[in-house]
Amino acid sequence: MEMERSDEVTRRKFLMSSAGAALFSMSGCERIEKMFLLGSQPGPVVPPSGKGIDLISHALNRLSFGPDPSEYARVKEMGASEEEAVAAYVDEQLDPDSIDDKRATRAVRRFEAIHAPLAEMYEYKEEFLLEQMTRATLVGATRSKRQLFEMMVHFWSDHFNIDASKEECRWLKAADDREVIRKHALGNFSEMVRASALSPAMLWYLDGRENRKRNEDEKPNENYARELLELHTLGVDGGYSQKDVMEVARCLSGWTVRGLDRMLKKGKVSFDPEAHDDGAKVVLGHEIAAGGGETDLDAVLEIVCGHPSTAQYLAQKLCVRFIDDDPSQDAVEATAKAFSESGGDIKTTLRALFSTKAFLEGSRGSKLKRPFEFIISALRGSRAEVRSELALIDYLVRMGHAPFQYPTPDGYPDVASPWSGTLLWRWHFAIALARNEIDKKIKVDEADLIEKAGGVAGLSASLLGRVPTEEESASITRSGEALALLLASPGFQWR
Amino acid sequence: MKGTGIVSGKGDEQRTLVVVFLRGGADGLTLAPPVGDQVYHDLRSNIAVSEDEVLKLGDANCGLHPAMSGLHDVFKDGGLSVIPAVGSEDETRSHFYAQDLMEHGGPVAGGWLGRFLRYREGRQPTALSAVALGKKMPEVLRGAPAATVMESMDTFSLGKKGVSTAKFKAELAGLYGAETSLLGPAARDTLQALDRVAELAKTSYSPEHGAEYGDDSFSNGLRQAAQLVRARVGLEAVSLDLDGWDSHFAQETLIAPMITRLSEGLSTFYQDLGPLMRKVTVVVMTEFGRRVAENSSFGTDHGSGGLMMVMGGKERGLVGTMPKLDAGTLIGPGDVPVVTDYRSILIPELKMHAVCETVGEIFPGFAQEK
To which H or E segment does residue A265 belong? Predict the structure, then answer.
């Protein structure tokens, strides 16, 4: 065992280094990157001019990871009024394929390993995969113009949380991110749950692969069945019983995944009829006849995804993400209704949410940016040139918000209070970024930002989504470090 | 919304847990050699610690290595638990796998200490809640709500050394002073903590009670930990490694200096903190013990049951006994059996540190079996 292990590590190291070499040789791509970073011509900067956060800034705060300085003007141009402009922006963002995103796509393609076929993932060192995956996530969130899509990826990564440090999730999470989260982020909820249920990483993470019933004495493993009901669909108060958990586990018994101890087809998911409990079951009052075999899975998913509690629970979570830590029940009801009536169509559901009074007229700047959102919004708002994301990962770890590293299945919390202890590192980051002290690979040009925004007041408005208060302006002037203080200020911590 | 309380005014309520990981599989039978077991001497005819030299722990059937006089004194003071034959469910005897398993708290995601900090009750963790002393974040802290790899006190300071941030901090104090949200009190606490850290970075630390730390990196780490404990900046967890216990070859030469470093470092820390040790618990663990029989190069190979030690926090003493090393007891290729699961030692310690109703979330599979 010991010998085999070290051989494997050496082999992976070798492969990793050849992959590393391949990356280095991509000078052509790097050149294109460079052109993108320096040569692209963003539109003019016309900062917001309202005393409070207007609807356009509000939409940018919520649908995206914060605006680039020229984004406000771009959206404003999309309609004759704020309402029309935001409606057009929502339409645009709900149709990501219509957005030309070649540059961001190319920037993410650099991380070759995470695009490899499943079995090949095992050839990489696991730390390398996690690093590549995290960097790709940061690049996508920062650079993609399909901001709402990236925001939903962020949301679903928590909803179907998988910590990549558990057993073979180390190699398999990258495929889950690709085939479950990104593939269905703006698709259909039921299809996403099905993809997740059969995702190799999920079968490892929640022990589904060990859910077997081969004889009288064997008890199915309930772990996945419980989280499917409690976290992925109905929600903890969704009205299911322990009996339902056990029945769902029986339905899903027999699905498994080939591990790294197998020579071939590592990570392949299959159904073993011998390990399936093929008797009759009752799930949430619905009978599932004996002999269903692998179709029991679809029967279960139809019941749980179509359950009214699921619509309610998903609507609640989406409203917490996009509206408020404690969203109005009217907004939740309207969102749940759209979810139910569209059969879990995520775009339809979001469109309904973005049309609620609570979203359009409710409180603005009331959501605390979580550390990931803070960092991305700072990079976007300051047009940072990022040539390596590694230092950013350090900051995320310090603030306890590194992607793919949340240890339990419930995903990172989406309300303010758990994040209140992160100010020190936010300030630290703000100063280091503005002073160009993070490392040589991350650069901002504060003078240029100020010039393009037509002065410090313009930069302030562009970062805060509103004209700064007198106190803020005075403070910014006194500090002599406009960008650092703006990014560290209370106004910039909220979205 | 209550303040986050980096400095709550009740700083003396704060407990700190220090986790020392001996990487490489430390030989429990050398650190705490059996007493009165002839099999040990038969199977280790070249490298057994002679019974005359073993530092006795009362009339226990194991003692301490002669180089551990410092920790022996701590034991006599009632400050040290020695727990022989501890381990995990590991069967691979692979460093990589066994360390992960023990730092994660089972075949689960994230580290047990990280989960503990996330799920324990009470105030929100702060930037200074968890510190890893060394170069990289250990697995045990993976998933923590806040964890920093600290190389020196400057790690926490805003901006590069030498460039003043006083003006910047004054402006932050003003802006956050007007903040009515939960960030208002959080900012106040953070600014206070920054001031304390700045002071620590400025002044050189003087240990108390006549303690004198060595100049090796392990002692240095412990010295920094003591400094942070004294500064009452909200430090809840510290992780610190002592590497190099993989003694396949010429074991005696290899690990004797390590044993000295371990004992000197920990006993100095104990002496320095004095009465404060009531609030500080140090847990010493290793991924597995080593095979009972020595190999042909005067070393030992990877085994099972190893040693754990716990220092401070409350009255301590010997826990459990060293199993007899005869053929009937040994497991696998001739290893010390795992009599005590490491998690059953950790759980009461964690419960003493903070209210955490859901031990099941800290050690998932383990709690269910109980």
Answer: none
Q: Tell me if chain A has a CB within 8 Å of the CB of B139.
A: yes
ipTM, interface predicted TM-score of the complex: 0.88
User: Left (φ > 0), alpha (ψ -120 to 50) or beta: where does A235 sit?
Assistant: left
CA distance A482 to B210: 49
Phi-psi domain of A84 (left: phi exceeds 0; alpha: psi -120 through 50; beta: other): alpha
Distant-in-sequence, close-in-space partners of B315: CB < 8 Å, separation ≥ 6: B78
Q: Phi and psi dihedrals of B321, rounded to 5?
A: -130, 160
Closest Cβ opposite residue A407 in set B4, B114, B168: B114
Predicted pLDDT of residue B355: 79
Name the range with the highest mean pLDDT among A86-100, A400-414, B315-329. A86-100
> Positive or negative CA dihedral for B155, B159, B165, B170?
negative
Whether the pLDDT of residue A16 is over 60: the answer is no
Q: How far is B76 from chain A (nearest CA, A)?
A: 39
* pLDDT value for A21: 43
- The DSSP-derived string for A427-448 is HHHHHHHHTT-S-TTEE--HHH
Longest dimension (CA), chain B: 74
* Sequence-ordered list of residues with C-beta below 8 angstroms from that of B2, at least 6 positions apart, any chain: B123, B185
In a domain, residue B243? The reply is yes
DSSP 3-state of A188: strand
d(CA A176, CA A169): 9
Joined together, the tokens standing for residue A166 give 């558990």
Q: Is B339 a member of any domain? A: yes
**Total domains in the fold of chain B:** 1
Tell me what the mean pLDDT of segment A352-369 comes to: 97
Q: Average pLDDT of A100-126? A: 93
Q: State which residues form the domain around B113.
A: 15-156+211-369
Q: Tell me if B206 is assigned to some domain.
A: no
For chain A, say whether B151 makes contact (Cβ under 8 Å).
no
Give me the residues of A, 50-79, that contact B with CB < 8 A: none
Phi, psi of B268 (to 5 degrees): -65, -45
Which residues, including other chains, have CB under 8 Å from residue B19's CB and lie 6 or more apart? B113, B140, B237, B238, B239, B240, B282, B283, B285
How far, in Å, CA of B323 to CA of B329, rounded? Answer: 7
Smallest Cβ distance to A485: which of B97, B159, B168? B168
- Nearest CB to B143 within list A167, A407, A493: A407
- Flag if A400 and B108 touch (Cβ within 8 Å): no
Q: Is B156 on the interface with A (CB under 8 A)?
A: yes
Q: What is the pTM of this model?
A: 0.85
A489–B contact, CB cutoff 8 A? yes
Q: What is the CATH number of the domain that holds B234?
A: 3.40.720
Q: Which residues pair with A283 in a beta bridge?
A: A286
Asked which of A25-34, A170-179, B290-299, B345-354 is least confident by mean pLDDT, the reply is A25-34
